[in-house]
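Notes, p. 3: input format for complexes.
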Amino acid sequence: MHDTLHLRRCRTLYLEPRQQTSFDLRALVSGGTGMTLRSVWTALAPHLPAPVELNESQVLLLGRLDPERWEPRPAGEDDSDLRYLLAHGLVQAQGADRDALAEREAQLRQVPWWGPAAMLHWQGRWQGQDSVKALESAGLHTAAGLRAHLGPPPPALAPHAGEPRRLPRQPEEAFDRSLRERSTCRNFDTAQPLPLAELSRLLQRTLAETGRQVVEEDAVFLKKNVPSAGGLHPTEAYLLVQHVEGLQAGLYHYDPASHGVSALPSDARSMAELAVLFTAGQHWFADAPVLIVLAPRFARTYWKYRHHPKAYRAVILDVGHISQLLLTCATEQGLGAFVTAAINEQDIEQVLGMDPMQLSPLAVCGVGWRAQQMSTSEFDPGGQVWTPVLTAEPPTG
Ligand SMILES: Cc1cc2nc3c(=O)[nH]c(=O)nc-3n(C[C@H](O)[C@H](O)[C@H](O)COP(=O)(O)O)c2cc1C
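Output follows (397 residues plus flavin mononucleotide):
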Protein backbone atom coordinates (compact mmCIF):
# COMPACT_ATOMS: atom_id res chain seq x y z
CA MET A 1 0.00 0.00 0.00
CA HIS A 2 1.32 3.46 -0.91
CA ASP A 3 2.84 5.43 1.97
CA THR A 4 1.41 8.85 1.01
CA LEU A 5 -2.13 7.57 1.23
CA HIS A 6 -4.35 10.04 3.10
CA LEU A 7 -6.95 8.54 5.41
CA ARG A 8 -9.91 9.51 7.50
CA ARG A 9 -11.91 7.31 9.83
CA CYS A 10 -15.69 7.39 10.05
CA ARG A 11 -17.00 10.14 12.31
CA THR A 12 -19.46 8.22 14.48
CA LEU A 13 -17.72 5.21 15.96
CA TYR A 14 -18.03 3.35 19.24
CA LEU A 15 -15.99 0.35 20.35
CA GLU A 16 -17.47 -2.31 22.58
CA PRO A 17 -15.68 -5.28 24.10
CA ARG A 18 -18.15 -8.16 23.67
CA GLN A 19 -18.11 -11.66 25.14
CA GLN A 20 -18.79 -14.31 22.51
CA THR A 21 -19.66 -17.88 23.37
CA SER A 22 -18.89 -20.70 21.00
CA PHE A 23 -19.06 -24.47 21.13
CA ASP A 24 -15.73 -26.28 21.40
CA LEU A 25 -15.72 -30.09 21.16
CA ARG A 26 -12.27 -30.34 22.82
CA ALA A 27 -13.54 -28.37 25.83
CA LEU A 28 -16.43 -30.86 26.10
CA VAL A 29 -14.17 -33.90 25.78
CA SER A 30 -11.89 -32.55 28.48
CA GLY A 31 -14.80 -32.49 30.93
CA GLY A 32 -16.21 -28.94 30.56
CA THR A 33 -19.56 -27.71 29.24
CA GLY A 34 -18.19 -27.43 25.71
CA MET A 35 -18.84 -23.68 25.68
CA THR A 36 -15.90 -21.30 25.44
CA LEU A 37 -15.95 -17.56 26.09
CA ARG A 38 -14.02 -15.19 23.88
CA SER A 39 -13.62 -11.43 24.20
CA VAL A 40 -13.89 -9.53 20.91
CA TRP A 41 -13.70 -5.85 20.08
CA THR A 42 -16.71 -4.72 18.09
CA ALA A 43 -16.93 -1.53 16.04
CA LEU A 44 -20.35 0.09 16.15
CA ALA A 45 -20.88 2.70 13.46
CA PRO A 46 -24.36 3.65 12.27
CA HIS A 47 -23.48 3.89 8.57
CA LEU A 48 -22.68 0.16 8.55
CA PRO A 49 -25.25 -2.59 7.99
CA ALA A 50 -23.99 -4.44 11.08
CA PRO A 51 -21.29 -4.24 13.81
CA VAL A 52 -17.78 -5.25 12.71
CA GLU A 53 -15.41 -7.46 14.71
CA LEU A 54 -11.89 -6.04 15.22
CA ASN A 55 -8.57 -7.26 16.55
CA GLU A 56 -6.57 -5.19 19.01
CA SER A 57 -4.19 -3.69 16.46
CA GLN A 58 -7.17 -2.57 14.33
CA VAL A 59 -8.65 -0.89 17.41
CA LEU A 60 -5.38 0.95 18.03
CA LEU A 61 -5.09 1.96 14.39
CA LEU A 62 -8.62 3.39 14.40
CA GLY A 63 -7.68 5.42 17.49
CA ARG A 64 -4.79 6.99 15.59
CA LEU A 65 -6.89 8.19 12.65
CA ASP A 66 -8.65 11.55 12.53
CA PRO A 67 -12.42 11.55 11.92
CA GLU A 68 -12.46 15.02 10.31
CA ARG A 69 -9.22 15.69 8.45
CA TRP A 70 -7.53 13.61 5.77
CA GLU A 71 -4.15 12.74 7.24
CA PRO A 72 -1.19 10.74 5.94
CA ARG A 73 -1.32 7.11 6.78
CA PRO A 74 0.36 6.54 10.19
CA ALA A 75 3.82 5.03 9.90
CA GLY A 76 4.57 1.46 10.88
CA GLU A 77 0.99 0.13 10.67
CA ASP A 78 0.19 -3.34 9.36
CA ASP A 79 -1.10 -3.32 5.75
CA SER A 80 -3.61 -6.07 6.41
CA ASP A 81 -5.22 -4.14 9.30
CA LEU A 82 -5.62 -1.06 7.16
CA ARG A 83 -7.04 -3.12 4.27
CA TYR A 84 -9.57 -4.68 6.67
CA LEU A 85 -10.71 -1.30 8.01
CA LEU A 86 -10.98 0.10 4.47
CA ALA A 87 -12.92 -2.93 3.25
CA HIS A 88 -15.36 -2.71 6.17
CA GLY A 89 -16.08 0.99 5.68
CA LEU A 90 -14.51 2.15 8.94
CA VAL A 91 -11.73 4.06 7.17
CA GLN A 92 -11.72 5.84 3.85
CA ALA A 93 -8.87 6.74 1.57
CA GLN A 94 -8.86 10.24 0.11
CA GLY A 95 -9.70 10.31 -3.58
CA ALA A 96 -10.86 6.69 -3.69
CA ASP A 97 -14.12 5.86 -5.46
CA ARG A 98 -16.96 6.00 -2.99
CA ASP A 99 -18.55 2.61 -2.44
CA ALA A 100 -22.00 2.19 -0.86
CA LEU A 101 -20.61 2.35 2.70
CA ALA A 102 -18.58 5.47 1.99
CA GLU A 103 -21.67 7.02 0.42
CA ARG A 104 -23.71 6.25 3.54
CA GLU A 105 -21.00 7.67 5.80
CA ALA A 106 -20.97 10.86 3.75
CA GLN A 107 -24.79 11.05 4.06
CA LEU A 108 -24.57 10.50 7.80
CA ARG A 109 -22.13 13.43 8.11
CA GLN A 110 -24.85 15.67 6.67
CA VAL A 111 -27.07 15.08 9.72
CA PRO A 112 -25.65 16.53 12.96
CA TRP A 113 -26.69 13.55 15.09
CA TRP A 114 -25.65 13.39 18.73
CA GLY A 115 -23.41 10.30 18.69
CA PRO A 116 -25.02 8.29 21.53
CA ALA A 117 -28.49 8.92 20.05
CA ALA A 118 -27.29 7.77 16.63
CA MET A 119 -26.04 4.60 18.26
CA LEU A 120 -29.26 4.05 20.22
CA HIS A 121 -31.35 4.51 17.10
CA TRP A 122 -29.17 2.32 14.90
CA GLN A 123 -28.86 -0.51 17.42
CA GLY A 124 -32.53 -0.63 18.46
CA ARG A 125 -33.93 -1.56 15.06
CA TRP A 126 -35.32 -5.03 14.49
CA GLN A 127 -35.23 -7.22 11.42
CA GLY A 128 -37.49 -10.23 10.87
CA GLN A 129 -38.48 -10.48 14.53
CA ASP A 130 -41.57 -12.38 15.61
CA SER A 131 -42.19 -10.72 18.96
CA VAL A 132 -45.23 -12.89 19.68
CA LYS A 133 -43.32 -16.16 19.37
CA ALA A 134 -40.46 -14.72 21.44
CA LEU A 135 -42.79 -13.64 24.28
CA GLU A 136 -44.84 -16.84 24.17
CA SER A 137 -41.81 -19.11 24.33
CA ALA A 138 -40.48 -17.12 27.29
CA GLY A 139 -43.91 -17.35 29.00
CA LEU A 140 -44.09 -13.55 29.06
CA HIS A 141 -47.20 -13.04 26.95
CA THR A 142 -49.66 -12.54 29.83
CA ALA A 143 -49.56 -10.41 32.98
CA ALA A 144 -49.73 -13.60 35.10
CA GLY A 145 -46.80 -15.06 33.15
CA LEU A 146 -44.80 -11.89 33.70
CA ARG A 147 -45.49 -11.99 37.45
CA ALA A 148 -44.58 -15.68 37.63
CA HIS A 149 -41.30 -15.32 35.71
CA LEU A 150 -40.15 -11.89 36.78
CA GLY A 151 -41.51 -11.58 40.31
CA PRO A 152 -43.60 -8.59 41.40
CA PRO A 153 -43.19 -5.35 39.47
CA PRO A 154 -42.45 -2.07 41.25
CA PRO A 155 -45.81 -0.90 42.71
CA ALA A 156 -48.44 0.53 40.37
CA LEU A 157 -48.54 3.71 42.46
CA ALA A 158 -45.52 5.61 43.73
CA PRO A 159 -45.44 5.69 47.52
CA HIS A 160 -46.29 9.05 49.07
CA ALA A 161 -46.27 10.44 52.57
CA GLY A 162 -49.60 11.32 54.20
CA GLU A 163 -53.04 11.67 52.64
CA PRO A 164 -53.12 13.65 49.37
CA ARG A 165 -55.37 16.67 49.32
CA ARG A 166 -58.37 15.64 47.22
CA LEU A 167 -59.20 17.75 44.19
CA PRO A 168 -62.82 18.47 43.28
CA ARG A 169 -63.99 15.86 40.76
CA GLN A 170 -65.79 17.45 37.80
CA PRO A 171 -69.01 16.25 36.21
CA GLU A 172 -68.49 13.96 33.27
CA GLU A 173 -68.86 15.34 29.77
CA ALA A 174 -68.99 13.64 26.38
CA PHE A 175 -65.25 14.22 25.98
CA ASP A 176 -64.55 12.31 29.22
CA ARG A 177 -66.63 9.37 28.00
CA SER A 178 -64.79 9.33 24.71
CA LEU A 179 -61.44 9.35 26.52
CA ARG A 180 -62.53 6.40 28.66
CA GLU A 181 -63.64 4.46 25.64
CA ARG A 182 -60.11 4.34 24.25
CA SER A 183 -58.69 0.88 24.61
CA THR A 184 -55.86 -0.59 22.55
CA CYS A 185 -57.70 -2.49 19.81
CA ARG A 186 -56.47 -6.03 19.19
CA ASN A 187 -59.63 -7.26 17.46
CA PHE A 188 -60.35 -5.72 14.08
CA ASP A 189 -63.33 -6.54 11.92
CA THR A 190 -61.59 -7.93 8.86
CA ALA A 191 -64.86 -8.09 6.88
CA GLN A 192 -65.78 -4.43 7.23
CA PRO A 193 -63.77 -1.95 5.17
CA LEU A 194 -62.85 1.41 6.61
CA PRO A 195 -64.66 4.12 4.61
CA LEU A 196 -62.25 6.57 2.98
CA ALA A 197 -64.08 9.46 4.66
CA GLU A 198 -63.25 8.05 8.14
CA LEU A 199 -59.59 7.61 7.26
CA SER A 200 -59.48 11.05 5.70
CA ARG A 201 -61.05 12.66 8.79
CA LEU A 202 -58.56 10.92 11.06
CA LEU A 203 -55.54 11.98 9.00
CA GLN A 204 -56.91 15.51 8.66
CA ARG A 205 -57.21 15.84 12.43
CA THR A 206 -53.89 14.29 13.35
CA LEU A 207 -51.39 14.82 10.55
CA ALA A 208 -52.59 17.56 8.19
CA GLU A 209 -51.12 21.02 8.01
CA THR A 210 -53.44 23.59 9.58
CA GLY A 211 -51.31 26.67 8.88
CA ARG A 212 -47.77 27.76 8.13
CA GLN A 213 -45.22 30.45 8.73
CA VAL A 214 -42.95 31.23 5.83
CA VAL A 215 -39.83 32.87 7.24
CA GLU A 216 -38.10 32.69 3.87
CA GLU A 217 -39.01 30.66 0.82
CA ASP A 218 -36.68 27.92 2.07
CA ALA A 219 -37.53 28.17 5.78
CA VAL A 220 -41.13 27.10 6.30
CA PHE A 221 -42.73 26.03 9.59
CA LEU A 222 -45.98 24.11 9.61
CA LYS A 223 -48.72 24.27 12.19
CA LYS A 224 -50.55 21.06 13.05
CA ASN A 225 -52.98 19.88 15.73
CA VAL A 226 -50.08 18.15 17.53
CA PRO A 227 -47.13 19.98 19.10
CA SER A 228 -43.63 19.33 17.78
CA ALA A 229 -40.21 20.12 19.26
CA GLY A 230 -38.92 23.32 17.68
CA GLY A 231 -42.10 23.52 15.57
CA LEU A 232 -40.26 21.34 13.06
CA HIS A 233 -42.79 18.54 12.52
CA PRO A 234 -40.21 16.04 11.20
CA THR A 235 -42.51 13.01 11.19
CA GLU A 236 -43.68 11.51 7.91
CA ALA A 237 -46.61 9.11 7.72
CA TYR A 238 -46.77 6.11 5.41
CA LEU A 239 -49.94 4.06 4.99
CA LEU A 240 -50.19 0.33 4.49
CA VAL A 241 -53.73 0.02 3.18
CA GLN A 242 -55.41 -3.38 3.29
CA HIS A 243 -59.11 -2.70 3.42
CA VAL A 244 -60.21 0.87 2.85
CA GLU A 245 -63.31 1.52 0.76
CA GLY A 246 -62.29 3.82 -2.09
CA LEU A 247 -58.52 3.38 -1.76
CA GLN A 248 -56.74 0.52 -3.46
CA ALA A 249 -54.72 -1.77 -1.22
CA GLY A 250 -51.07 -0.75 -1.26
CA LEU A 251 -48.43 1.51 0.22
CA TYR A 252 -48.84 5.27 0.30
CA HIS A 253 -47.08 8.38 1.54
CA TYR A 254 -49.26 11.02 3.19
CA ASP A 255 -48.74 14.66 2.24
CA PRO A 256 -49.83 17.00 5.09
CA ALA A 257 -49.96 20.09 2.84
CA SER A 258 -52.38 18.83 0.20
CA HIS A 259 -53.96 16.27 2.56
CA GLY A 260 -53.33 13.70 -0.15
CA VAL A 261 -51.72 10.33 -0.57
CA SER A 262 -49.24 9.16 -3.19
CA ALA A 263 -48.99 5.49 -4.11
CA LEU A 264 -45.59 3.89 -3.55
CA PRO A 265 -44.05 0.87 -5.26
CA SER A 266 -44.13 -2.43 -3.43
CA ASP A 267 -42.53 -5.82 -3.95
CA ALA A 268 -44.27 -9.13 -4.69
CA ARG A 269 -45.42 -9.62 -1.09
CA SER A 270 -49.08 -9.05 -0.24
CA MET A 271 -50.18 -6.25 2.08
CA ALA A 272 -51.26 -8.91 4.59
CA GLU A 273 -47.74 -10.36 4.63
CA LEU A 274 -46.15 -6.94 4.98
CA ALA A 275 -48.54 -5.99 7.79
CA VAL A 276 -47.42 -9.03 9.82
CA LEU A 277 -43.78 -8.23 9.09
CA PHE A 278 -44.18 -4.52 9.98
CA THR A 279 -45.85 -5.35 13.32
CA ALA A 280 -43.30 -8.07 14.20
CA GLY A 281 -45.72 -10.99 14.06
CA GLN A 282 -48.51 -9.35 16.09
CA HIS A 283 -51.36 -10.78 14.04
CA TRP A 284 -53.92 -8.93 16.21
CA PHE A 285 -52.49 -5.64 14.87
CA ALA A 286 -51.71 -6.86 11.36
CA ASP A 287 -55.47 -7.31 10.77
CA ALA A 288 -56.09 -3.55 10.88
CA PRO A 289 -57.55 -2.21 7.61
CA VAL A 290 -54.85 0.44 7.59
CA LEU A 291 -51.47 0.78 9.29
CA ILE A 292 -49.86 4.17 9.74
CA VAL A 293 -46.06 4.10 9.91
CA LEU A 294 -44.65 7.14 11.74
CA ALA A 295 -41.12 7.91 10.55
CA PRO A 296 -39.25 11.13 11.41
CA ARG A 297 -36.81 12.84 9.05
CA PHE A 298 -34.02 13.32 11.56
CA ALA A 299 -32.22 16.04 9.61
CA ARG A 300 -35.16 18.38 10.14
CA THR A 301 -34.92 18.24 13.95
CA TYR A 302 -31.10 18.11 14.01
CA TRP A 303 -31.05 21.20 11.76
CA LYS A 304 -32.02 23.21 14.85
CA TYR A 305 -30.79 20.93 17.63
CA ARG A 306 -27.29 20.24 16.26
CA HIS A 307 -25.51 17.40 18.07
CA HIS A 308 -28.05 18.07 20.81
CA PRO A 309 -28.46 15.43 23.53
CA LYS A 310 -32.24 16.08 23.63
CA ALA A 311 -33.04 16.01 19.92
CA TYR A 312 -33.71 12.27 19.57
CA ARG A 313 -35.78 12.31 22.76
CA ALA A 314 -37.80 15.19 21.31
CA VAL A 315 -38.40 13.24 18.09
CA ILE A 316 -39.67 10.25 20.05
CA LEU A 317 -41.98 12.51 22.04
CA ASP A 318 -43.27 14.01 18.79
CA VAL A 319 -44.22 10.55 17.54
CA GLY A 320 -45.89 9.83 20.89
CA HIS A 321 -48.02 12.95 20.55
CA ILE A 322 -49.13 12.00 17.06
CA SER A 323 -50.03 8.48 18.14
CA GLN A 324 -51.99 9.73 21.16
CA LEU A 325 -54.00 12.12 19.02
CA LEU A 326 -54.59 9.34 16.48
CA LEU A 327 -55.95 7.06 19.18
CA THR A 328 -58.09 9.80 20.74
CA CYS A 329 -59.57 10.86 17.40
CA ALA A 330 -60.15 7.27 16.26
CA THR A 331 -62.03 6.55 19.50
CA GLU A 332 -64.16 9.64 19.00
CA GLN A 333 -65.00 8.34 15.50
CA GLY A 334 -66.09 5.02 17.00
CA LEU A 335 -63.02 3.21 15.64
CA GLY A 336 -60.53 0.90 17.27
CA ALA A 337 -56.86 1.90 17.17
CA PHE A 338 -53.44 1.00 18.51
CA VAL A 339 -49.83 2.08 18.63
CA THR A 340 -46.87 -0.27 18.79
CA ALA A 341 -43.11 0.14 18.97
CA ALA A 342 -42.58 -3.61 18.53
CA ILE A 343 -41.93 -3.24 14.83
CA ASN A 344 -39.39 -4.53 12.33
CA GLU A 345 -37.82 -1.20 11.51
CA GLN A 346 -35.22 -2.63 9.13
CA ASP A 347 -37.84 -4.43 7.06
CA ILE A 348 -40.04 -1.34 6.92
CA GLU A 349 -37.04 0.73 5.82
CA GLN A 350 -36.22 -1.78 3.12
CA VAL A 351 -39.81 -1.91 1.81
CA LEU A 352 -40.22 1.89 1.86
CA GLY A 353 -36.69 2.65 0.65
CA MET A 354 -35.51 4.53 3.74
CA ASP A 355 -31.94 5.24 4.87
CA PRO A 356 -32.28 4.52 8.61
CA MET A 357 -30.16 7.46 9.75
CA GLN A 358 -32.18 9.90 7.62
CA LEU A 359 -35.72 8.57 7.82
CA SER A 360 -36.81 5.64 9.95
CA PRO A 361 -39.97 4.36 11.63
CA LEU A 362 -40.31 4.76 15.40
CA ALA A 363 -43.87 3.48 15.75
CA VAL A 364 -46.74 1.96 13.81
CA CYS A 365 -50.38 2.79 14.48
CA GLY A 366 -53.41 1.00 13.11
CA VAL A 367 -57.08 1.81 12.85
CA GLY A 368 -60.34 0.18 11.81
CA TRP A 369 -63.71 -1.08 13.02
CA ARG A 370 -63.59 -3.25 16.11
CA ALA A 371 -64.79 -6.84 15.69
CA GLN A 372 -68.01 -8.01 17.38
CA GLN A 373 -66.19 -10.90 19.04
CA MET A 374 -63.02 -10.69 21.06
CA SER A 375 -60.41 -13.29 20.19
CA THR A 376 -57.32 -11.49 21.50
CA SER A 377 -57.63 -9.94 24.95
CA GLU A 378 -57.89 -6.23 25.42
CA PHE A 379 -57.36 -4.29 28.61
CA ASP A 380 -60.84 -3.17 29.56
CA PRO A 381 -61.25 -3.76 33.31
CA GLY A 382 -64.05 -1.17 33.55
CA GLY A 383 -66.07 -2.67 30.68
CA GLN A 384 -65.99 0.59 28.72
CA VAL A 385 -65.66 -1.14 25.37
CA TRP A 386 -66.61 -4.75 25.86
CA THR A 387 -69.55 -5.99 27.91
CA PRO A 388 -69.79 -7.94 30.12
CA VAL A 389 -66.77 -6.70 32.07
CA LEU A 390 -63.70 -8.71 31.11
CA THR A 391 -61.14 -10.09 33.43
CA ALA A 392 -58.96 -11.63 30.72
CA GLU A 393 -55.40 -10.41 30.54
CA PRO A 394 -54.11 -8.40 27.62
CA PRO A 395 -51.01 -9.39 25.72
CA THR A 396 -48.09 -7.55 27.23
CA GLY A 397 -47.16 -4.88 24.71
C1 LIG B 1 -45.43 2.97 23.01
C2 LIG B 1 -46.42 1.84 23.11
C3 LIG B 1 -46.08 0.61 22.57
C4 LIG B 1 -46.99 -0.45 22.64
N1 LIG B 1 -46.67 -1.63 22.05
C5 LIG B 1 -47.57 -2.64 22.06
C6 LIG B 1 -47.28 -3.88 21.43
O1 LIG B 1 -46.21 -4.06 20.87
N2 LIG B 1 -48.22 -4.85 21.45
C7 LIG B 1 -49.42 -4.69 22.06
O2 LIG B 1 -50.24 -5.61 22.02
N3 LIG B 1 -49.72 -3.52 22.68
C8 LIG B 1 -48.83 -2.49 22.69
N4 LIG B 1 -49.13 -1.32 23.29
C9 LIG B 1 -50.43 -1.17 23.97
C10 LIG B 1 -50.27 -1.37 25.46
O3 LIG B 1 -50.09 -2.73 25.74
C11 LIG B 1 -51.54 -0.82 26.14
O4 LIG B 1 -51.54 0.58 25.99
C12 LIG B 1 -51.62 -1.19 27.59
O5 LIG B 1 -51.77 -2.56 27.78
C13 LIG B 1 -52.78 -0.47 28.27
O6 LIG B 1 -54.00 -0.81 27.63
P1 LIG B 1 -54.93 0.29 26.95
O7 LIG B 1 -54.14 0.97 25.87
O8 LIG B 1 -56.08 -0.47 26.39
O9 LIG B 1 -55.31 1.26 28.01
C14 LIG B 1 -48.24 -0.26 23.26
C15 LIG B 1 -48.57 0.98 23.80
C16 LIG B 1 -47.66 2.03 23.73
C17 LIG B 1 -48.04 3.38 24.28
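The first helix runs from residue 25 to 29.
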